[in-house]
Amino acid sequence: MPSPPPAPAAFVISRVMRPGHEEAYGSWVDRVIAAAHVDGGFMSAVRLDQAGGLHHLVLHFDERRRLERWSEGATYIALASEADAFSVGLDQNDSGSVMGFDLPSEVAAKKWKTALVTWLGVVPTLLIVSSVVAWALPDVPRVLQQIVSSVLLTSALTWLILPKVRGWSRFWMMQNEQGDLRKEPG
């Protein structure tokens, strides 16, 4: 009886960009896909881009052996090293008719890093907002000043401050102790 055909395999490359290097990812992905095309067994690629500089590239191969040969080859190793200059990454692979991957997200950041980044956004904003409200509404009771301050603080943090602070710090927040991209909640 003939042996069954090899199971398809997938290689997932997840990357979070260093601040200011988001555009480097696009040309890098094109070169990764072109390099996979050269190697036998490449079937397709799916690009999944999340807001905030977190990206995933799924490469499909006809079998695990060809995927491993490509991902462990000099071309991909050089491309991955190049990407380390503008991002931090995580590579995963699986094979079979059903495959599963744990994709990194901001939820995986260490809680102390998230708290520190949030605090760095809150403190200066709080000082400015409370000072401006106290100056603009000096005759208003303190409790009403605090209510106005809290509305302004929450709005500024939600729409202006924290998106910027987290964008600048995401690269650092999502790294594990080895400098790789975290996928487990911290």
Automatic annotation (TrEMBL):
Keyword flag Iron: no
Spans through the membrane: 116-137, 143-162
Domain of life: Bacteria
Keywords: Membrane, Transmembrane, Transmembrane helix
SUPFAM superfamilies given in the database record: Dimeric alpha+beta barrel (SSF54909)
Segments forming a coiled coil: none
The protein, known as: ABM domain-containing protein
